[in-house]
Amino acid sequence: MNKFHGTGVAMVTPFQANGQVDYDALQKLIDHLIDGGVEYLVSLGTTGESATLGKEEKKQVFAFTAKAVNKRVLLVAGIAGNNTLDVVAEIKAFDTTGYDAILSASPHYNKPTQAGIYQHYKAIAEAAPLPIILYNVPSRTGTSVSAETTVRLAKDFKNIIGIKEASGNFELLNQLFRDKPEDFLVISGDDPISLQMIAMGAVGVISVVGNALPREFSNMIRKCLAGDFKGALPSHYSIIEFTRLMFAEGSPAGVKSALKQLGVCGDTLRLPLVNVGADTEERIKVQLGVVK
């Protein structure tokens, strides 16, 4: 399978009850995902609660993750922010050992124009020692990266190799798939519509649900990539409710609750995120077969 085709997982960052990073649980999560057959991992994306980790913590998590993965699968580092100079400095200082690409979400809160988004990624591309995967997630950033901007970046910078697309905007997706360079990767960033996006031409997904169900989810994605959508549909339908629950009270609260039930790691989050309520937790248990 080609690089970054298939299922990538945006890993959670396990925390101890006291809020410190739980490295034993992180090792367990990494092994759980690799044993589950996923194609690659993403460290410290949004799902990893990267916004609540300090610079030294991030450095330690990146280093530990690279050592724990030990080149068994491809590994992507999440490095993003709304201060372009800071993001560029972080990328320049990043120890690339063990990493294959950088995933960088478009700037949040500032609400830049498309010209500003282009210049932001231009600065990143010119500084990056690794290939760049763009990330369009307007539900979190407040601004969508247009198809025109993505295509322009793809054509202007050879080290911008793809985009994690989580806009859910099929008008944008239609234009993007029509106009992008042939070798530019479009990766689903939206678990519920990954099947549909692969039917349009996406090469896979960077998943939240895959933290909890790596084997089930990655098998479904492989069927889709093989063109066996009929064979993938039963799995797709069977996890609709589980997927909904993963986001019902925010991410990664849902998937951390599931991972706790599976015995992979605890469900501690850092404020301002909080755990799912008792009702959602019970529903997650039912979906996992922990209770009936």
From TrEMBL:
The active site is at residues 135, 164. Pyruvate binds at residues 47, 206. Pathway: Amino-acid biosynthesis; L-lysine biosynthesis via DAP pathway; (S)-tetrahydrodipicolinate from L-aspartate: step 3/4. The record marks 46, 109 as: Part of a proton relay during catalysis. Its EC number is 4.3.3.7. It catalyses: L-aspartate 4-semialdehyde + pyruvate = (2S,4S)-4-hydroxy-2,3,4,5-tetrahydrodipicolinate + H2O + H(+). It comes from the Bacteria. The keyword Acyltransferase does not apply. It is found in: Cytoplasm. Keywords: Amino-acid biosynthesis, Cytoplasm, Diaminopimelate biosynthesis, Lyase, Lysine biosynthesis, Schiff base. InterPro entries: Aldolase_TIM, DapA, DapA-like, Schiff_base-form_aldolases_AS. One of its GO terms (molecular function) is 4-hydroxy-tetrahydrodipicolinate synthase activity. It is an enzyme of class 4 (lyase). Belongs to the DapA family. Catalyzes the condensation of (S)-aspartate-beta-semialdehyde [(S)-ASA] and pyruvate to 4-hydroxy-tetrahydrodipicolinate (HTPA). NCBIfam families: dapA. Homotetramer; dimer of dimers. HAMAP family: DapA. This is 4-hydroxy-tetrahydrodipicolinate synthase.
